[in-house]
Amino acid sequence: MFKDLDPILHSQLRLAVMSLLISVKEAEFTFIREKTNSTAGNLSVQVQKLKDAGYIDVIKQFKDNYPQTVCKITKPGIRAFEEYVVSLQSYLGNGKP
Amino acid sequence: MTQPEKNLTEKESLDLIAKMISQAKNSYHDTGRSAMLWGTVVAVCSLVKFTEIQLDYNLPFDIYWLTILAIIPQIFISRKESKDRKVTTYDDIYMDYVWLGFGICIGLMILIVNTMGYHWQPVAEEYSKLSGKESPFQLYEFVGPLFLVLYGMPTFITGAACKFRPMLWGGIICWVCCVITVFTPVKTDLLLIAFSAVFAWLIPGIIMERDYRSAKKGLAQANV
Q: What is the C-alpha to C-alpha distance for residues B201 and B39, in angstroms, rounded to an integer?
């Protein structure tokens, strides 16, 4: 029996954001935008969805008088990501050849 | 990634995860400025001390005070690097702690060596007075190896953890020089310390700085 894939994570940009954040302690919004090659508006929307799901923390602060947004993955986010990867592997491992 | 809700196949999802993790891992390049600073400072201090002994002169101050002064530019370098850093990886945090621990160890080693010297000096003088010969054990002969053993540790760990071979070899060079300095006079020790500082920090620092600049240039061109 296959588990349903987490719909929050099973989307290209959100998954890209989570995959970046799982490997680092924290990252600036601009860094995520560069690496995911996304637009600021689109990324903002997806980041907000991840935040609403409790998967990431978004810290808005000022650095040298400029606004700065820092994102970091939360413990529920790590758990959800790990479960998502396990589900993917089970799909691929048990899928049709 | 212009389609916000594009769903992926399982295979595409796994490929995306692998790609993003790899991008995050390769995202940070150290500037190499700290390594260049300390490589230069330690090499200069050792070489100046060597010339003091070789040419029999004394500077009006102890050249090793330069290592204390170098903390000031180091603070500026660290603040600038922290400001420019857009992402903090777990490796960065471990490396920061390794080098902070190294700095503390160096401070403690200076304290230990000076205290030992303070207590040993009257014993050596007493020995000379009674025997008419110089003491066969001179503490300063072993100061070089003690510092070299410490220099090697964070350098080797950084080189191994960051897969940066010049620093890995630099750490090994420190330890090889450490073994040699156990058996060589102080003048040779000072030359070997300068040699180690150049190969463990200055040269790797120059390579890191070059890589950092080319990565930054590449990123700027990609964003045009």
A: 5
